[in-house]
Amino acid sequence: xxxxxxxxxxxxxxxxxxxxxxxxxxxxxxxxxxxxxxxxxxxxxxxxxxxxxxxxxxxxxxxxxxxxxxxxxxxxxxxxxxxxxxxxxxxxxxxxxxxxxxxxxxxxxxxxxxxxxxxxxxxxxxxxxxxxxxxxxxxxxxxxxxxxxxxxxxxxxxxxxxxxxxxxxxxxxxxxxxxxxxxxxxxxxxxxxxxxxxxxxxxxxxxxxxxxxxxxxxxxxxxxxxxxxxxxxxxxxxxxxxxxxxxxxxxxxxxxxxxxxxxxxxxxxxxxxxxxxxxxxxxxxxxxxxxxxxxxxxxxxxxxxxxxxxxxxxxxxxxxxxxxxxxxxxxxxxxxxxxxxxxxxxxxxxxxxxxxxxxxxxxxxxxxxxxxxxxxxxxxxxxxxxxxxxxxxxxxxxxxxxxxxxxxxxxxxxxxxxxxxxxxxxxxxxxxxxxxxxxxxxxxxxxxxxxxxxxxxxxxxxxxxxxxxx
Length: 470
Known about the structure:
This protein is α/β, with parallel strands linked by helices and 470 residues long. The protein contains 21 helices and twelve strands.
């Protein structure tokens, strides 16, 4: 089976269009590469495309998308019904409506990329987006394309069932002025793994001697409810070179070294938690809560896989550039550079939509490099580009913006990898159930031995894969 379907020629698309008597505009390959705008077309009658989209963490994000939608409506004469939902709310709503059938045409949400999209593609519930992606596939990186190239088990084929829009990866966010309060600067932060984390515990100890009794050093998510929990856990597994799947998508959890690695990571969390360096409230955090606790200065640092935290203080230049710090992750325990896990936000088109052509035209519009790049910039740079030409804009490397330029350095200079869900869709259920969050709760709250918690996590992962395969 070929990995990619052969590109459809522009002539063939136009021929089909004439036969079908639709006024569908096409965007040729060269136009998409150079970033020219979409061809204006006549409106398609009764075409109101309904879209559910992740609500931004700052007003600029939603305004940027609304501007993009307005421009497409003016150009085409078609209409969009756009609704924003919080990340947790949107994921729960989609899961509910999958059973009732009351779904929109298009959905774009961060949590879906790792725990929903591959599953829906497998079940044959997503429309094939090859005609949108193939004309521009050479301006995506190989890994980004892999996140969209999914298997449809109903039609027994591999094809493009999602449109990558932007990406993000994990960084450390911290209060530089709190470090200065106890006599430290950025130059004092080690890059060696153990020394890096011990540094933050020392900062907490010294802050508490100054009567900041309610502050915690390590604001890491620990709850079952937050996707941030499994993202951080997976990143730490990566730090210890613990692979849950091999390159072919097969489980490695029966390997004793994998089991010992999971135990080691659980012990890593438990040690800091029991010593009082992680806030007990983190066991109940939802996805936005690590942001809130850092911004409220109840933790010194936290991990996050977008620039939503600095984006929240962007209107205060001193806080954005000077007080709020951003760091790449420390080196792995073995001294190697960190391999960063990449989250790719995608738009998906439901196969049962009766607005397929208008929806595909909208997707082809928003992924043009000039349109996509402008959208990401207006949104404040919270997310990083997925298209090679967009990176060429100096906005992404401007050292006057420490947060955007650091994220750019990570994506362009550091090793990265995508999540296991693209090697095997069964792993999307592992993340959906937050198996790692459950294991953490067992160890940190229920005082279950780490060995037992690791074994139960392994058993559940094997059950999920067996159920999927059957």
